[in-house]
Specification:
Blueprint lengths: L1 E6 L22 E2 L5 E2 L1 H12 L4 E7 L3 H8 L4 E5 L5 H15 L7 E6 L3 E2 L1 H16 L4 E6 L10 E4 L5 E8 L4 H9 L3 E10 H11 L5 H6 L9 H4 L7 E6 L3 E2 L4 H7 L4 E2 L2 E3 L4 E7 L5 E3 L3 E8 L2 E6 L7 H5 L7 E4 L2 E9 L2 E8 L7 E3 L4 E15 L2 E5 L4 E4 L5 E17 L9 E3 L4
Parallel strand pairs: 1-4, 1-6, 4-5, 8-12, 14-16, 15-17, 16-18
Antiparallel strand pairs: 2-3, 6-11, 7-13, 8-11, 9-10, 9-11, 10-12, 18-19, 20-21, 21-22, 22-27, 23-28, 24-25, 24-26, 24-27
Helix pairs in contact: 3-6
């Protein structure tokens, strides 16, 4: 099974745990069978591989998410990198071109596309397998998954099938309705449109060539920033008459707000949290090193991260986005392909950061034009390379790099933690030059 997972958005409705770099799908709040915590993307990837160990997974995403994906899923997962946001049609076309021109997937092979962050059971992925087989064998050009509604939702569009069979021709599509209209759709057999569909690779690439002038993946990638922003629905679905829908009757949720996310949590708290006995239906997630104590609260969500603290009535939490849009501050936590960093203190001409490198991982070999840096090793071991000179490091060692100095740090088998102090009048994430390591 070839699967394209769409991983976009900043997930601001799940602030302060999500931001422009750390989208909601990377928040680790779900317990694994061995008692550890995993994110939405880790959970979905694990479920796919459980149902189909041979599944080929490609994640279509922006370049800002690549480090988080590598950090959580490893280096072997396929990634179709978008240089900017151009909506779902350009994203899916680029990923389809990646599969064909780079990975060698044949034009007559079926591909399944779905979001990266649904909260589902394994039966969902069995249905994805069925959808893939349907697209491979059916005469329909597009095969959609229609989700059996559990309530008259105003959040989703609706698919109206021509019959009540498990697989049916699609009669029409309906835009997001009000509650009364949604109930009418459901009474008439309507299904939620969860953005899950399958097609033969050549079908979408042929449509892409009709709308975009490109020759292969490399050419399309070079032109990506110039592509028109348009959804897959508008570019493809609305122009296609031959569409089939497969019914899905299992558990499904998109967990787009703190209210819906807390319903999926196996525990009421993650991190250092205490509730008194009078708290009812309260969920808390704490990523800070200090304790949270909640008393006498009901139907409340509490979240604390280096980026901020949210205390909200659960129903009101779905209206968070406009308030978060008004917050303008530096990103305080981010995952990288080599580990993670957390900003500890921001001053006018200095920035103090805690850096955690995963075992046997390294930063890029790089330099800065407008800032000096000082590293103090606090745990683990490894080595630095500074202007080509190697040095073994251990806790207590201090390494100083002046502006313009090329440098990197490499963690040993137990990982490495250090405190990085950046000094300069113009400290910016854009002040960075990357180099090849000297032989």
């Amino acid at each position: 099974m070839n699967i394209i997972l769409l991983s976009g958005g900043s997930g601001k409705r799940l602030w302060p745990l999500s931001n422009d770099i750390r989208s909601k799908q990377f928040i680790k709040i779900f317990k694994t069978p061995d008692g550890e915590y995993e994110s939405m993307v880790q959970r979905v990837y694990r479920q796919i591989k459980t149902v189909d160990p041979d599944a080929s997974v490609t994640i279509a995403t922006s370049k800002s998410q690549v480090s988080s994906i590598h950090n959580q899923l490893g280096e072997n997962v396929g990634i179709s990198v978008e240089t900017c946001r151009r909506d779902t049609f350009p994203s899916i076309v680029l990923a389809s071109a990646y599969l064909h021109y780079v990975k060698g997937v044949k034009l007559d092979e079926a591909v399944v596309v779905c979001p990266v962050d649904p909260y589902v059971s394994d039966d969902y992925f069995h249905s994805l397998n069925m959808l893939c087989e349907l697209a491979q064998k059916s005469t329909a050009n597009l095969c959609l998954m229609g989700i059996n509604p559990t309530y008259p939702s105003e959040k989703y569009g609706y698919i109206m099938p021509a019959s009540k069979d498990n697989v049916s021709k699609v009669e029409s599509f309906k835009e997001k309705p009000d509650a009364a209209t949604a109930q009418n759709y459901i009474d008439n057999g309507g299904l939620w449109n969860g953005g899950v569909f399958a097609y033969k690779l050549g079908y979408v690439l042929n449509r892409a060539h009709e709308l975009i002038d490109f020759t292969d993946y490399a050419d399309l990638f070079s032109k990506f920033e110039t592509l028109t922003k348009i959804s897959f629905d508008y570019a493809v679905v609305e122009h296609e008459q031959d569409i089939a829908v497969l019914r899905f009757n299992g558990e499904w949720s998109d967990l787009g707000t703190w209210n819906t996310l807390s319903e999926a949590m196996e525990e009421n708290s993650v991190g250092n949290v205490r509730f008194d006995k009078s708290c009812e239906n309260v969920h808390a997630i704490n990523e800070l090193g200090i304790p949270i104590l909640a008393m006498g609260l009901k139907d409340v969500v509490i979240t604390a991260s280096p980026d901020g603290i949210l205390v909200s009535d659960k129903e009101k939490s779905s209206y968070i986005k406009p308030y978060v849009d008004e917050i303008d501050q530096q990103i305080m936590f981010a995952e990288k392909s080599w580990g993670s960093y957390r900003v500890l203190e921001v001053e006018k001409e200095s920035l103090t950061v805690k850096v955690c490198l995963n075992p046997n991982h390294m930063m890029n070999y790089h330099s800065h034009d407008r800032r000096d840096e000082v590293w103090t090793v606090i745990s683990g071991s490894g080595k630095t390379i500074v202007d080509g000179m190697e040095q073994l490091i251990k806790p207590g060692d201090v390494i100083t790099m002046a502006a313009g100095c090329k440098h990197t740090v490499i963690a040993g088998k137990d990982g490495l933690q250090l405190i990085e102090v950046q000094l300069g009048s113009e400290i910016s994430v854009n002040d960075k030059h990357k180099y090849e390591l000297p032989l």
